[in-house]
Amino acid sequence: MRYSVAMTEEIETAMRKHLIRDDGQEDVLIASYRLSTGAERTTALIRSVIFPDEHDRHVHGNASFTSRYVLRASSEAQTLGDGVAVLHSHPGALGWQGLSRMDWETESEYERVARRITKMPLLGMTLAGRDTSWSARFWFDKSTPTWAESVRAVSPKLAVTWNDELRQIPRVTRSQQRTVSSWGERTQASIARLRVLIVGSGSVGLDVAQRLAATGLATVGVMDYDAVEAVNLDRMIGATRLDAALGRPKVDVAARLMKSSATAEPFEVLRHEVSITDPVGVSTALDYDVIFSCVDRPWPRAVLNAIAYSDLIPVIDGGIALDTFPDGRMRNGIWRAHTLVPGSPCMACLGQLVVGDIPLDKEGLLDDPEYILGANRDAPSRQNVAALSASVSGALLAQFVSLTAHPGGRGTPAPLRYILSTHTLEHSIASSGQYCPYETRTAIGDARTPIAEHRDDWRAIVHERTTSKAQIRLRALAAVENFLQRRISRIR
């Protein structure tokens, strides 16, 4: 199990302003957190700051808590259903911080108090004052802390502090020289360590996956339970007729193409033949730092929309819609891109997700001709063009660069929409709804509303594919392909 910490920009700013003092002395603070439990990673989501009263701590060069403060904060956290995080600052320090003997003894002692009251582990955090880097550890018992691999401040400018021992800096390869020259080695070191998931590996997702691999990311996951068909070949650039003939899983095609274009050494591609609308898919998604939403159905988009806020994982979403005249000529094309982070409007507030369509999608009614006719609805648009889907993937990747590299010191923009017929780029003026059911549940983690459901339909599709006779031929051909790929890699 891996561990991490995440918080909103609002929470991070409040804690940093308290801990970094004008007089240069150390200070202490307590916050509450809630857990977000993935398949392989558990994240503590900082939810609220419990500021000290006048006599709650001592500032004397090395600041210290009072027992009164710890007891009060633990009781407040317990009332919220949260755990306790104790924080202190190292004003003159840089980067990820270890624990001094005094800090170790302090946190070890308060672990027992916090656990007795909240029934949750104590979380310890340190802020390095010179570069505002955070570090964190979980106290599951009194003897030894378990270190987190990263601390993420989630906003339109994603900021990550990495534990170099647990998530080592990938070596810059010769193939990455021009990439690194665009934003520097420090930014590359952070971007390369992000675990990024692409949900949906169709025309847009497949292109995004390959370009992330070429950018030097060390770990990229792709989630899709569908297989390649002949109808996909005019958009899935890199998929072959053999892939379609064999019904090859889309995640396998994406993995093959990512390995071919990857510049990181080593490079890890993770294949997830599951549905994001299933609890298994949600649990998998919670292991990642950034998610690309390359799906076009209301239900999976609603699940990803919720994760962006409840679990503080930025979701980069977009899509394309093409419109034709009755005689078949193109009327217009619109593509859009936006990044979902706390403080930015969600898909529902943007009008890109109709909440009432979610139950219809669950029941399959949005593809039912009789229902569509009876409800006087338009059938789902199926048009797509490879030449235009590249524009969507480009728009999503530009959002990713803005989120992680902050060109010009700026983060992700307001949601964007490009209108092809007039060649107009629009910035959305949409704002968050006052009672938005997604944004009001920010950082609730495992207490999230269960939108995902266990379904057997996608499992049946995967089972049928993996047990068919074609799968035996696929394995033999895949072995040949893997051999050739290894030979090509040696040549490179």
Automatic annotation (TrEMBL):
SUPFAM superfamilies: Activating enzymes of the ubiquitin-like proteins
A Pfam entry, by short name: ThiF
Residue span, THIF-type NAD/FAD binding fold domain: 176-350
Listed GO MF terms: nucleotidyltransferase activity; thiosulfate-cyanide sulfurtransferase activity; ubiquitin-like modifier activating enzyme activity
Gene Ontology cellular-component terms listed: cytoplasm
Name of the protein in its database record: THIF-type NAD/FAD binding fold domain-containing protein
Species annotation: Brooklawnia propionicigenes
